[in-house]
Structure formats: C-alpha cells, structure tokens
Amino acid sequence: MSPIQLAVDALSLGGQFALIALGIGLIFGVMRMINFAHGDLITFGAYALVVPSAADMAVPFVGAWSAWFLIPSTLGIVMLATLAGERVAFRPLRRRHADGTSLLISSFAVGYLIQSVILFVHTGRPKSVSIFPGLTRHLEIASVRVSLIDVVTILVTIALLLVVLTFLRFTRAGLHLRAASEDFSMAKLLGVRADRVIFVAFGISGLLAGVVSLLYVAKTGVLDSRMGVPLAIAGFVGTVIGGMGNLAGAVAGGLFLGIASTLLQALLPEALRPARDAFVYGLVIVILLVRPGGLFVPRNAAVRI
Amino acid sequence: MNLRRPRLFPATGLIAVLAVLAVGSRLWGNTLVEGALTEALLYLVLVVGLSIFVGNSGVVSFGHIGFAAIGAYASAWQTCCTGFRGVFMPGLPTFLLELDMPVVTAALLAGLLAALVAAVVGIAIMRLGGIAISIALLSLLFIVKSVYENWDSVTAGQSSLVGLPLYVDLWVALAWAAGAIVVAQIYQRSAFGLKLRAVRDDEAAARACGVTPWIQRLIAFVLSAFVAGVGGALYGHYLGTLAVSIFWLDMTFVTIAMLVLGGMRSLTGAVVGTLAVTATREILRSLERGVDLGTLHWQAPQGSQEIVLALILLGILVFRPEGLVGDRELGVRKAV
User: How many angstroms separate the CA of residue B5 from the nearest CA in chain A?
Assistant: First the structure.
C-alpha cells in the first residue's frame, strides 16, 4: 500500500471519528454527560434510508430520493431523534440535578432502546443499501488509486469542522454554548438560557451524527442494528484521550484514533490483524497511563473548591 | 448506624430471604420458577460483583462482563470436556491440557485471573476521572471480546465451546450468591469500603483526609472483578456451552439494569433489582412464547422483552432515580 493511499485511508477514518467525538464532546461540554446513544443515533439515521420491514431485502425509502432530499431528510430525522431523546430521557433528570452517573446510565438505556427497536422492526440480519453509487468509484491521483468516498469524507469533515468552529466562534448562540461549557451555572447567572443552549448542543450533535450515518453507509453499504456501537466507542475514546471538555481535543483525539487504527491495520502482522481493535484500545490505555487527563488537558481541568 | 447490630447484617438477612425463596421454589416443584431463580442467583453473583465497585465508588462500569468472560473461559480451560480439551483448544499449554481441577478451585482460580487482569488495567484506568473510567471500561469490554473472539486456539474463537461440566444447580448458585454477598458486605464495612465511599461522596474532602482516590478505586475494582470472574465461571457451568457473544452488551445492559433498578448504592438494592428484573424477563419471555386467554391465543412479538426492559430502566431513572430501595439496607433504618 502506498503512503498516499494509507494517508487517505487514515484521514478518512480519522475524520469520521473526529466528527463523532465532536458530537459527543459538544454535549459533554454543556451537560457533563457522555451521550451513549450517539452511536445508536447514527444507526437510526442509516436505517431511516430503508423501508421499515422484517424482509431480508431492504427496500430503499429515504435512500431512493435524490441527494437534494435525501441529505436534508436524513440529517433532519437524526436531529429530531436526538432532540426527542434529550426531551424524554435527559431533561427530567437534569431538572432534578441528577449526577453524571444517572445521565450516563440514562443515555445507555436510550441507546439500548434504539437498538432493540431496530432489532424488533428490522430483525437482526444485516441489510444492504446503496446510496450515492457514484462515490464508490476510485480516483487515479499520480498513479495512486484512492477511493472517492474517502476523499469526500475528508472534505466533508474539514468543511463541517470549519462550519461548527465558525458557529461557535462568531455567533451569539455559539458564544453562549462556549460559556456554558466553561461554567454552566455561571453562564446561567449571566443570562444564558440553559434549555436553549442544551437544545443547540443536541441539535448540532444530531446533525453530526446524521452526517456520519450518510458517510458510513455510502462507504460500506451495510446496515446492522449494532453498527453504531463501535463508532460511538471510538468517539468516546477520542474525547477521553483528547481531554474531556475540550472540543479541539476531542477532534484531535478522534483523528488520532483513526490514524492509529489505520496504521496498525497496515503494519500489524497478518495473524494479529483481526485483533487490531485490542491493540488500538491497548494503546489508548497506555496513553492514559502516561497522561491520565488526556493528551490535551484544558487549563481548568482540576476541580476547584 | 446501630452498632449493636451483628456485623454481617444485612448480608445474613438477604441470604436468609434468598434461601427461603430457594426452598420455597423447590417445595412448589415448578421447574420454570426454580430455573428462573437459579439464573437470578447466578446473575446476582455478577451484580453483587458489579456493585462492589459501582456502589462504593459511584462510577458505572460497562466492563465487568468482560471479567465474567475471562472467568468463564478460565474455568473452561481447567475443567472442560475431559479428553477433548486438546481438540477444542489446541493452543492451551500442556499443564492445562492435563489438568483435572475440582470445579470449586477452578471457579476461584478463574476469579483470580479476572482480578489479575483488573489489577493490571486498573492501575491505568482508575486514575482517570469518573465518567472517563466508565468509557475506558467499556473499551476494556471491547478488548476482551476482540481478543477472545480471535484467539481461536484457546477459546474456539467465534464458535461455541461445548461440554463444560454442568454442576451448577439451585443450591450451588445459592451458595455462591451467599458467598458473594458476604464478600461485598465485609468489603463495605471495612476501612477500604469506608474510604472509597468517602471518595464517592466528596473526593476533595476525602483527599484532604489522606485518602488516595485511585488506590481505593483499584482495590474495589480488583475485588469486584474477582467476584464477576467467579460469576462468569458459574454461568458457563450453568449453560454447559460458552461463546464470547454471551458476554456482550445484552448481559452488560441486563446487569446494569438490575443494579440501577434496585438501587445502585445498596446491597439490598442489588438483590431486589436482580430478582425484579429476572421476574420481569421471565414474564415477558413467557408472553413471547404465547398465552392462552380462554379461546384467544396471544403472543407478544419477539424482541419485546428488550424494549420493555429498556423502557422500565428509563422510567426508573426518570421517576425514581435512587432505585426501588434507594440507599437503604434491609433492616437498617438509616443509610449506612
């Protein structure tokens, strides 16, 4: 495998993980909650592409529409599901000032519920669906073959990161969100509206999850009721090694994880490749042993009394 | 706290209740109920193991089922399928191939292996903050699954391992569940348990009193991994067959639901939650098999069990977040 091909693979996977880590990190910032259901929302978006049925053959539903409808509908569906989850499962707990543990378990239950419902409706058999068939082509760049979807993934990631960054940096809602991530109760005292800022965080997080649904399905073409779980784990680990509560760190952590996975896949001996994930997460544990707070620890990391 | 109370209370009370249930189900002679109670007691070993860490540290673990898997396979290495062990698991070292370990010793050694793994990874993981520990433990579950599914020569990989000695019945399960409860009780009352709960309630204050949070977490983690490892070993000998996929997200979800439903912070809660969830699952399972209402045959669709369980857990978290019993213990008026 040529170095360029490897780099494209690494950045494409890393970009996907970075988007997931950012989606998780945004919510963690305002709520101090790891949203376990994030991966299952990605699964939910992917399944929205096909008609709900127990049949073996998947019939495209949203997936059959033209891209102009397909993309906004999928993103909209995932955003709505994310906001609905916040409304039903997290807001009542937040109102009661529940601790992070309860919120974590609550999001775990939401994720399990989504998985179970998908399993219930679609059965456990993996389904296949093809969206954007044009993207599975390969490009020849300087006599190196790279797949178009990987290039698109990288470009979409860069564009989205820029959009989210601009939003956070230059809009009023973005300012509120950053203030709330810094110190939620102080932000509230200064007039930031808690419900609205959390609404915005969940909305962006849902949008990012929807984008990952589309990129993932466009690349693999396979639907599985638990496809989102390993993606979410990658995102969690990305946020943890990036330093929790640090958005740039989350993006960098996700990117790092994707690059490490791709490199290990390429460099590990053939016999050990199936257990690649064990090496990736083993590496993560080693990193945390050296830097328990993550690679990019924010200045206000230690809890002050 | 009433200091005149026997030191092993509420453990003794809980064990007495479980024993009465066991004797009752045997006298009733309903094999379905007896089977369900046996499974509940085996789950109880896992849940008590989980609660030693989760209850005292306040940190949720999504990784303990990985220790159950480690324990289950470790026990299989020592006791499984006499004569055929080398056929199923050719990669085992010679001393293990020839070993004929008594099942009780095998279960304890299996727990020790799980504890050893917990000690090694715990040194890194326990130094993280609360939620990061939960996530790191979840990736630990992934590592265990990934390693055991691909380590064909000692775990039969993605296919099942058959022929484990089936020695776990109602009484064996009761005995081990009682043992797990006693261990949890002794830990909870020990200085270590007290220090860890101090960390849980106010980390800064505990630090100021000279308690090192990560070391206290590590002690609880290793002990709870031991109990979970034994629980996994027993579960393997209850099923008679092993597959890595048994020890996965479903079991993780069910054990956490049991712990949260009853009340995360109390041993009584672990017992109540385990019994309540098992009863609910059994009822839903029999609904999925179908019920006859007079002339009408009604059958709940497959998979309703998981959905209902998830909804119950969410309902508990929203409406009764401290669980059914909160942090109360059987026969104790105030929180311990």
Answer: 32
For chain B, say whether A264 makes contact (Cβ under 8 Å): no
In A, residues 110-169, which contact B (CB 8 Å cutoff)?
A: 110, 112-113, 115-117, 119-120
Q: Where are the domains of chain A?
A: 3-290
Q: Where are the domains of chain B?
A: 11-248
Residue B91 is given by DSSP the state: T
Closest alpha carbon to A223 in A72, A75, A119 = A119
Q: Is B145 helix (H, G, I), strand (E, B) or coil?
A: helix
In CATH terms, A3-290 corresponds, of 1.10.287, 1.20.50, 1.10.3470, 3.40.720, to 1.10.3470
Residue A40: phi and psi, rounded to 5, are: -75, -25
Task: Assign 3-class secondary structure to A262-278.
Answer: HHHHHHCCHHHHHHHHH
Q: Where are the alpha helices (DSSP H) in A193-295?
A: 194-220, 228-242, 247-267, 276-290
- The rounded distance, in Å, linking the Cα atoms of B246 and B76 is 15
Interval A117-157: pLDDT, tens = 999 898 888 888 888 877 777 877 777 778 889 999 999 99
Determine whether the interchain pair B317/A288 forms a contact, defined as Cβ–Cβ distance below 8 Å.
no
Q: Which residues pair with A253 in a beta bridge?
A: none
User: Model ipTM?
Assistant: 0.87
Contact B298, B291 (CB under 8 A): yes
**Confidence band, pLDDT 50/70/90 cuts, at residue B154:** confident
The interface residues of chain B toward chain A in range 242-261, judged by CB-CB distance below 8 A, are: 249, 253, 256-257, 260
Question: What's the CA gap between A242 and A253, in Å, rounded?
Answer: 4
